[in-house]
Amino acid sequence: MLQTQPVIESDFEAMLALRIEALRESLERLGRFNPDVARARLRAQFRPEWMLHLVQGAERVGYFTVEPQADALHLHHLYLRPAAQGQGIGSWVIEQVKARARQAQLPITLGALRESRANDFYRRHGFELVEVRDFDNQYRWLPERLAAGAAA
């Protein structure tokens, strides 16, 4: 059974360790793994009020962050321990965020590290590549009503 739990400031170190565990392979493949950079990036984006732990049984298996913006919901983080990947947890999170976006009639935006398997995951879930940057790909998903209006 999957549950979410709120994040508090004292969770930072455990969340950093989980983030490093989740990203290490992709970052090493790009020659960009650096624990100090990982710490600085998470610290700069650490907003507990936007973050939720993903808990399976009694174990924290991941977390995600949704930043509400004026014109979008931005999915900053969706990290799962490698052992928890491929079990539908990420898909469950995406459906939760999509439901929130539909209710607010806002798009979802996110960035994914280039060369990461996450790119295939987001495309499978209907996210459209909108920009390629040096190290990241930027994606967007539109709720049905917004997508219909954009197509018209």
TrEMBL record:
<dbReference type="InterPro" id="IPR052523">
    <property type="entry name" value="Trichothecene_AcTrans"/>
</dbReference>
<dbReference type="InterPro" id="IPR000182">
    <property type="entry name" value="GNAT_dom"/>
</dbReference>
<dbReference type="Pfam" id="PF13673">
    <property type="entry name" value="Acetyltransf_10"/>
</dbReference>
<protein>
    <submittedName>
        <fullName>GNAT family N-acetyltransferase</fullName>
    </submittedName>
</protein>
<dbReference type="InterPro" id="IPR016181">
    <property type="entry name" value="Acyl_CoA_acyltransferase"/>
</dbReference>
<feature type="domain" description="N-acetyltransferase">
    <location>
        <begin position="2"/>
        <end position="149"/>
    </location>
</feature>
